[in-house]
Specification:
The protein is α/β, with parallel strands linked by helices. It is 60% helix and 6% strand. Among the domains are: 179 residues, Arc Repressor Mutant, subunit A (Orthogonal Bundle); 146 residues, P-loop containing nucleotide triphosphate hydrolases (Rossmann fold), CATH 3.40.50.300; 78 residues, no CATH class; 72 residues, Orthogonal Bundle (Arc Repressor Mutant, subunit A), CATH 1.10.10.10; 117 residues, Alpha Horseshoe (Serine Threonine Protein Phosphatase 5, Tetratricopeptide repeat).
């Protein structure tokens, strides 16, 4: 496959191995341009059509897009034109996606270079307006004009670089020439030229920009451009901003977004949890926008979260008025009068105001200017919703760093070579720090002061029970536990108690219902406490109704929680009783567990319906697994039981083996022969599904011997079915049939209808495999009657699949298709993905047998998608069917 290069930053072009590719007609170039503008992301057919035809698409628009994609695929990869499926243009999200990265698309390389601050190289990628060769009506769409604005914004950011090279200055000049009416870019270029020792060029640029604005728009230069011109010889002003952190990194996208703050949104509310780097970001941003405020900058730490008391707004105004030159004896005594004088002194000026570490909106509101023209930045652990709603502030929420951004921070502090030398250890450090900038900075400081310390050794220091002890420098302002405590100590009793008890919860987030059980309150009361924790920056709402804390905050909460046996009992019973309800909804034929009443104050959820049960188990699975691991005795065994059906249907075979081993260990502690036999049986089933037949039979043997001693006929039948299953894959069908018939006889004798129905279906499947489709059909129809009476949709889905195989064996392909289709729909509804894939594969076989290769291939492709997602090797066999039935086609 040749090396490809695509361009959209100027003419729309493509090259393979250095040779330009003929992209064909304008319509094909337009389709490719849309995909390039969204490179790496799915683009829906609707967006492509809207961009090409705007509000008047022809009736054939969708077909025209498909045809254009097909032609483009053959142009890009002529060797694949026969099959019509290419490497670069792929189906995705109801449309198409260009599967290319920064090494193949100029736009993506441009963005990567901007993120690396390689501005000159990035700006030089532009060869004119984006998509310049497209028809004017397409080129004028917002998708492409937005790229031009992105170029201008990047040039404006580049113009802020101090000590810029001649190459970078030249690149910014070219960008300014292409956007002569962009006053912000022109203003920054003036200052850049002056800083480069070219004041005459700066003055000339101002004169040219002023003349162009007058000629084209009939207006005079705006305040920003005028201020830049004045600043060339401006007198010194108040400049209180702290110095910008030299190693600041990882916030490129947030800075870029914040730098677009329009005039009507001159207040930025910067929020985030403790240690996320709000102050560093605010100072960096303030330095970037300081040129918009020629009358100076004011900075004030409001001490909203810290070791002492928060600063009163009245005291804050004394300091601010003093900085504005008001003598102490002229400052009024009351808050309102001070605020009025403060606003008067700011009127007519354009200043930057940075209020750091605010407690809440009430502390900040008296400090806001009364006139436009200022830039106000406020940092707080509170979300400052009041400023956003009532004062028009732009919310700027800072989260923890991704792995890539965390690496960027560590590389900036320690050097790229040191980080690249131990990538696995660095990733472990990032994971143990949870991407929290403060924690990463502490680790970086430790590494910088001890250059002989390896990344692996640093990672090992964090791999201890209490990571927080390692994340300290001895300075309270840079000690993770201390910084967290400043948020915790201001909480009222209720939210403080919930925060502490959250340390007992094994998951990263918690629902309102589970939180209610944890604290023994009503859901409404728990929701109020959770909202308080969100406002304090200790929790975030991860999704509607779910709340979580950063991993290190979770560890801090665990420090505070201690041992609260009552809360632990409420939490355990919440999950056990809800999971039991979910398990019974998924498999109505199960015999319920004899559970004790929930602990007082525990409020298990009242799930209704199979879909709700499946959704709850999916969302809470990690928590339930953790509870299995941390529980002992009967509770561990019961929790493992509740997960069995879900694990089987989600094909979580290895998890199932692990939880069943835990259940067996718990049963051995309980001195209950029947429970112990059940545990060996259940572990045998899990091992059988994990293709560990010999181990499975050993456990089944123990179980069946105990059941025989105890006279447990139904349980013996369950084990006989399990043993039979272990002989299916080796193809030892005589042994399979022998065990299935024994199970069937035991079920009949015990009158166990659910077990008998399952056995009938399994026997039917075997009969179909042995070439006896009529016998298989008869057993399936008997089983279906029982499953439908019991409301067992899993059994019904499995039997419909087997009945489809029987009809296939009888040559009744249409009936087979109907059975497989109904079975696949049921599998989706009950969340049994492994069975869904098998049924879809069978459905493809039935379509192929009926002479419908297109539908066969569609079903097989759906099966492959599920199998690939599950990591199942059976996908390769299904792909061979697809290859054997795929016809040459031009369809994309």
């Amino acid at each position: 496959m040749g090396r490809m290069w695509f361009t959209v930053l100027g003419p729309v072009r493509a090259w393979r191995d250095g040779a330009e590719i003929d992209l064909g007609a304008p319509q094909q170039r337009s389709v490719l341009a849309v995909l390039l503008a969204r490179a790496g992301q799915p683009v829906s057919l609707a967006e492509i059509v809207d961009t090409l035809w705007w509000d008047d698409p022809p009736a054939t628009a969708v077909n025209a897009v498909h045809r254009s994609v097909g032609l483009l695929r053959r142009a890009l990869e002529p060797e694949l034109a026969v099959r019509g499926v290419g490497r670069w243009l792929v189906r995705a999200g109801g449309g198409y996606r260009l599967a290319a990265g920064p090494d193949e698309v100029d736009l993506l390389r441009f963005r990567a270079l901007i993120g690396e601050k390689a501005f000159a190289e990035a700006l030089e990628l532009w060869q004119g307006p984006a998509a310049a060769t497209l028809p004017a009506e397409v080129r004028g769409q917002a998708l492409f004009t937005a790229l031009d604005r992105e170029y201008e914004a990047a040039a404006a950011e580049a113009a802020l670089v101090t000590g810029a090279s001649a190459r970078l200055v030249g690149a910014v000049e070219l960008a300014a020439d292409r956007a002569p009416l962009n006053e912000s870019l022109q203003a920054r270029l003036l200052l850049m030229l002056a800083g480069a020792g070219r004041p005459a060029d700066a003055r000339r640029r101002y004169d040219e920009a002023r003349a162009r604005l007058a000629a084209d728009l009939g207006v005079e230069p705006g305040p920003e451009l005028v201020a830049a011109a004045r600043k060339l010889s401006k007198r010194p002003v108040t400049a209180q901003l702290p110095h910008a952190l030299p190693g600041f990194s990882g916030r490129g996208p947030e800075l870029a977004a914040a730098l677009t703050l329009p005039d009507r949104e001159r207040v930025g509310a910067i929020s985030g949890m403790a240690g996320v780097g709000k102050t560093a970001f605010a100072v960096q941003l303030a330095h970037r926008v300081a040129d918009r405020c020629p009358d100076g900058q004011l900075y004030l730490n409001l001490r909203g979260f810290g070791p002492g008391a928060a600063m009163d707004p009245a005291d804050a105004l004394i300091r601010l008025l003093g900085s504005l030159g008001v003598p102490a004896h002229q400052i009024p005594a009351d808050l309102d009068s001070r605020a009025a004088l403060y606003r008067s002194r700011l009127a007519g000026r354009r200043m930057l105001l940075l209020f750091d570490n605010a407690r809440d909106t009430a502390q900040v509101r008296p400090l806001l200017p009364g006139t436009p023209g200022h830039v106000v930045l406020v940092t707080s652990r509170d979300r400052l919703a009041g400023l956003v709603v009532s004062d028009g502030a732009r919310p700027i929420a800072l989260g923890t760093f991704s792995t890539g951004r965390a690496r960027e921070l560590l590389a900036a502090r320690l050097g790229a070579e040191r980080i690249a030398a131990e990538p696995a250890a660095v990733d472990k450090i990032i994971g143990r720090c949870g991407g929290l900038p403060l924690a990463l900075a502490i680790v970086a400081a430790r590494a910088a002061t001890q250059p002989g310390l390896t990344m692996a050794e640093l990672a090992g220091e964090l791999d201890v029970a209490d990571r927080l002890d390692q994340l300290t420098t001895g300075d309270p302002d840079s000690d993770v536990r201390t910084v967290f405590s400043w948020s915790y100590r201001i909480l009222a009793d209720g939210p403080a108690r919930l925060f502490r008890l959250f340390g007992l919860h094994p998951g990263a987030d918690i629902t309102v219902a589970a939180a209610a059980s944890l604290v023994g309150l009503s859901p409404a009361e728990a929701r109020t406490l959770l909202a308080d924790l969100v406002r304090a920056g200790l929790f975030s709402e991860t999704s509607p109704g779910r709340y979580g804390a950063h991993d290190l905050l979770h560890a801090y909460a665990a420090d505070l929680a201690g041992t609260d046996e009552a809360a632990q009992s409420r939490l355990l019973d919440h999950y056990l009783h809800t999971a039991h309800r979910a398990a019974m909804l998924l498999a109505p034929g199960l015999d319920p567990l004899p559970l004790a009443e929930p602990a007082p104050g525990s409020r298990p959820e009242k799930l209704t319906g199979e879909d709700q049960a499946l959704g709850w188990l999916t969302a809470e699975y990690r928590v339930l697994r953790a509870l299995v691991d941390r529980s002992t005795g009967l509770a561990a065994w019961q929790l493992a039981w509740t997960l069995d059906t879900f694990q089987r249907r989600q094909d979580l075979r290895h998890d199932q083996v692990t939880t069943r081993r835990t259940a067996l260990a718990a049963a051995k502690q309980l001195d209950d022969p029947l429970l112990l036999a059940d545990s060996y049986r259940d572990l045998g089933h899990a091992l059988a599904r994990a293709d560990r037949a010999d181990e499975a039979r050993a456990h089944f043997t123990y179980a069946i011997e105990r059941y025989t001693e105890l006279g447990e006929k139904v349980r013996q039948a369950h084990v006989e079915r399990g043993i039979g299953y272990t002989y299916v894959k080796p193809g030892q069908y005589d042994r399979v049939l022998d065990h299935y018939l024994r199970a069937e006889s035991l079920y009949r004798a015990a009158g166990h209808r659910a077990g008998l129905a399952k056995c009938l279906n399994e026997n039917a499947f075997l009969q179909a495999r042995l070439g006896r489709p009529e016998q298989a059909r008869q057993r399936c129809e008997q089983a279906l009657v029982v499953f439908r009476e019991l409301g067992d949709r899993h059994g019904e889905a499995a039997t419909l699949d087997t009945l489809g195989l029987a009809h296939t064996g009888l040559g009744r392909h249409e009936q087979a298709v109907e059975c497989f289709t109904a079975s696949a729909e049921l599998c989706v509804r009950i969340g049994d993905r492994r069975s869904q894939a098998e049924v879809l594969s069978n459905l493809g076989d039935a379509h192929a047998g009926a002479g419908r290769p297109d539908k066969a291939v569609a079903a097989w492709r759906s099966a492959v998608a599920v199998l690939d997602d599950l990591g199942r090797p059976e996908a390769s066999g299904v792909r061979k069917k697809i290859d054997a039935h795929t016809l040459p086609t031009d369809a994309p």
